Amino acid sequence: MIEDRTERCLRLAQEEHFCPHCRQRLSCCEAPPFHVGDGLGWGTDILFICLNDECSLYSKSWQEFEDRYGHSASCRYVLCPGNDKGESMMVGGKDAFKGSEINIEELQQQNRRYAREKEATAQLASCVAEQDLEPVLYLLTDEHADPLARKRACELLLELKDLACIDPLRNHSFRTTDLEQQVNMTIVELLQSLHRRECPACSEIIKSQAKVCKHCGHQAQ
Question: How much is the pTM?
Answer without folding.
Answer: 0.67
